[in-house]
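FORM 7B: Structural annotation worksheet

SECTION A. Query
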Amino acid sequence: MKRVTLKDIANRLSLSVSTVSRALSNDVNIRRETRDKILRAAEEMNYKRNTVAAHLRNGYTGAIGVVVDEMFTPYVAQALRGLQEVMQREGISLLIACSYHDPAQEAQNLRAMESAQVDGLIVCPCHDSANRDIMRRLFERGVPIVFFGRNPGGIKASEVVANDYSKAFYLVDHIAKLGKKRIVHVTGDVESLYFNNISKAYTDAVARNGLMPDGRYVIRTKPTFEGGVSAVDEMMRRGLEFDAVFAAADLQAIGVMNRLLEKGFRIPGDVSVAGYAGSYLSKMVFPQLTTVEPPLVEMGEKAGYLLLEKIRDPEAPNRSVTVDARILLRNSTHIP
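SECTION B. Predicted structure
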């Protein structure tokens, strides 16, 4: 079916294309009667505004790039929901690429977004330093960038982050106050400011409770379900005695719980398990997982507003927004 154009509406109403265009853009200089007539005709003819052409006339592509480190948990999905709601209202599309925790793939994704000439970038980095030079080059070239969840450091772009350190600290402190003396920490296998913050919170919290931090009790593995499973196998290989596990990612924690249950441990009777970056997956397992839950939809919205601000005004100041996560105490650490 042929697409209805401004010229088609103009011919039907015996008006100029310019008048039709201005009316559909809510130009206050168009008489109300004329505007109403044009709007009725546009609806009857099923006219759809060509947002791509409109953006191009203003020097934009009408699309932003979103480069994330994973797509298999609701963490990113919930953030994208908030981001998309903001961008849809502006007629802006999302181009989404995932690195799957692979810095080489992330570099390829960033270059692809540059080639697509997106109007701006939302980036959730998979590594602190691997692609910092690419991101810095894009930033210095004037590409608006907002970091989501974590900033790789060294780039003074806008960012939306959660208060990771304080919430992780209080959660580990709470687990220690339950009487747990041998708390294992499962963290990521790449250098990341996020994982470093979570690990520092763990170390500080156990020290505060008179428990000497022991490097053997820190297990580095991929932030995935399989990573959690392998972490338990590594704990067994090291011969660790443990009564609690705190993981930096919920998927790791869920993998830990599954492997422990397979080996006959009771949760939380024998071992308490907690995660971080809570999502509805943490409620779908048994026992339900104690975790820290950032307001992910809100974070996506805030990232969208920050990016729009920089797209509209490149001279706008870069902002750092910290949102308040909440600790959710559930049956994986507390006997019901």
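SECTION C. Observations
The mean pLDDT is 89. The longest helix spans residues 296-312.

SECTION D. Sign-off
Analyst initials: ____
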